[in-house]
Every structure is written in C-alpha cells, then in structure tokens.
Amino acid sequence: MIEKIIETILKIPAMIEFIIGAVVYLILHWVAGEVVSGVAQETVCKSPGIESWFLCFILTNEVVAFLSIVAIIIGIGLAFRKKFS
C-alpha cells in the first residue's frame, strides 16, 4: 500500500507541483486576508514572532510570497523524488 503511494507521488510532474503550490498560496492568502483587516495589518507586521512575520510577508509581498511558496512545494517534491527513486 505504501509502495503504491510512493510510486504515485514519484510520477507527479513538476507542473502539478506548481499548481499545488499555487493552490496552497491562494488558500494562505485568502485566509490571511480574511483574518487580518487593513487596520490590523500594521499591528501584525509590528508584532514579534515568526507567525506574524510570515502573515505580514504574505499580505505585503504577494509576488515574492507566491514564488517562494511554489518553490518550497516544488523543492519538497524534488527532495521526495530523490530520496525514494
């Protein structure tokens, strides 16, 4: 059973990983936009901690956040392929 799951994941092309990364970004951006209003963005960006930094990063730098999240998803996929192939 586990071998079939690993084989399926190894066959996923990079384009599907890009789409998965884009969907993850859109979900994060939508949730962050719903949770944090425009007035609260300044407070979130000034708060200490990695969580507030990440939320501020997604809210303020949309292009960079999109590219980094997609690159992380593709990197995870490539590392997974390298380990199990």
Care to give the gist of this entry?
By secondary structure, the chain is mainly alpha-helical. 87% of the residues lie in helices and 0% in strands.
Looking at this protein, list some descriptive labels.
85 residues, mainly alpha
What can you tell me about this protein's structure?
- The protein has 85 residues and is mainly alpha-helical.
- The protein has one domain (19-84).
- The chain contains five helices and no strands.
- Helix 2 crosses helix 5, helix 3 (38-46) packs across helix 4 and helix 4 crosses helix 5.
- The mean pLDDT is 77.
- The number of distinct helices, counting runs of at least 4 residues, comes to 5
Give the total of beta strands.
0
Radius of gyration over all CA atoms, rounded: 16 Å
Count of domains: 1
What is this structure's SSE topology?
Elements: H1 2-10, H2 14-35, H3 38-46, H4 50-60, H5 62-84
Helix pairs in contact: 2-5, 3-4, 4-5
